[in-house]
Amino acid sequence: MDESRDPLWLKVLGRLLGLAILSGAGWVGWHVTRLNYQFPRTDDASVMANVVGIAPHVSGALIELKVADNQEVNEGDLLFAIDPRPYEAALARAEAALLLARSELSAMSNSISSAVSAVKVREAELDLATSDLKRYEPLLKSQAIDALTVDVARTGQRTAMAQLEEAQQALLQQQNLLGQFGGLNARIGVAEADVRAARINVEYCRVRAPFKARVANLHISPGQFAREGEPIFALVDTRQWYVVANLRESFIESIRPGLAVDVYLMAYPNRRFAGTVQGVGWAVQTPEGPSTGVLPEAKPALNWVRLAQRIPVRIALDAPDPQRPFRMGMTALVTVRKESKTDPAVPAGNGR
Length: 352
What we know:
This protein is elongated. It starts with 7 loop residues before the first helix and ends in a 12-residue tail after the last strand. The model is unreliable at 343-352 (pLDDT under 50). Helix 2 (85-141) runs antiparallel to helix 3 (147-178). The relative contact order is 0.17. By secondary structure, it is α+β, with helices and mostly antiparallel strands. The strands form three sheets. A six-stranded antiparallel beta barrel has the order 1-10-13-12-11-14. A four-stranded antiparallel β-sheet has the order 7-4-2-9. It has a two-stranded antiparallel ribbon with strand order 5-6. It has three domains: 40-49 and 237-352, Beta Barrel (Elongation Factor Tu (Ef-tu), domain 3); 56-82 and 207-230, CATH 2.40.50.100; 86-201, Up-down Bundle (Methane Monooxygenase Hydroxylase, Chain G, domain 1). It is 39% helix and 27% strand.
């Protein structure tokens, strides 16, 4: 059919229909873009929880292992026990040393009492010798006594002074050996500190859960030697779950702490979970920048076009559904809503 023979009204209608389609597509595109900035969303998000490596404070062989991998534990539950016998022996030795130090302190206190008495005797002897000399010297002028008697009195005074100084030095030496500083005795203080440290090491032999958690990455058995400070498994803190969503930096102006968030998990596609924006990240590791080793890294999807940097946004999740528990690493899709939400999990102040 020849197009030139089409009626005019049909041509006008076709052009108007095409214009309407283009206008509608433009409006839909503008509206979708507007919604994306008003309600930022991303599927580049994961469920996270705080993870603590459980490491013993003392070294030794594991004699008890009370947990299994993926087991739930409560605060205070016994996780494992290390052979306490070496540390119990060290505690007994420290307690014996404390008793010995107290015994030595008693003996030294008696020695000091004797030294104090000796100083008092020497002081009395010096007073007597000085008094005799003062009495003899006027008599020598009147020749009531001879010079030899006065010389003997002077020698007696000098001897008494030397003996007093010797007694005072002996007293000072005993006081230094005692190690007393005011109301604190250094020897006893050191011995008591050794006992406390040994008792703490014995307590460290039984390791308990610091909070409610799930055991993860457990690959040990009783008999394995555990080293001080080296983690032997991990605990996933199940008290608070959150989502880390990597959102484009162009959305930052639309995100602030306290905003409500809809969260969908790939594991439970038909279930909506609620969350709250806790804060927006302040630093990320860029691919071109130097590595710092402590910053999160959010890689762009492509490298042949310039993409907006992804900024991690932390979203605190509400209490989980017991029938649909959260697991660390689950893939999430999040949508930030416009309204704010009051939630105790969000700290006061500006988290941005």
